[in-house]
Amino acid sequence: MYELTRGFLREELYNLTSQMRRCSCSVPTNLAEGCGRSGDTEFARFCSIAMGSASELEYLLLLARDLKLVKAEEYRNLAEATSEVKRMLAALIGKLNADR
What we know:
Shape: elongated
Number of strands: 0
Distance between the termini: 35 Å
Largest sheet: none
């Protein structure tokens, strides 16, 4: 996301650029924090927060495409990767909840 947003307009630095960077970093950060917590219940909660951040990124990518900040091909690749992360998170959350 840092590489992608490096090319965004300077006026977007504190808006779209910052938000896309924060939510993309939030996904692995929440997974790491959840791993450091005690038990599957806490881990599942942090996985859900990561899912929210991935969903936010999904929308922000769409917005960046609509604003013509991201090329269509680049958008497709990133949207597909984000969807894959969401599928993996959903499976992990499902497994964690089933084990309780």
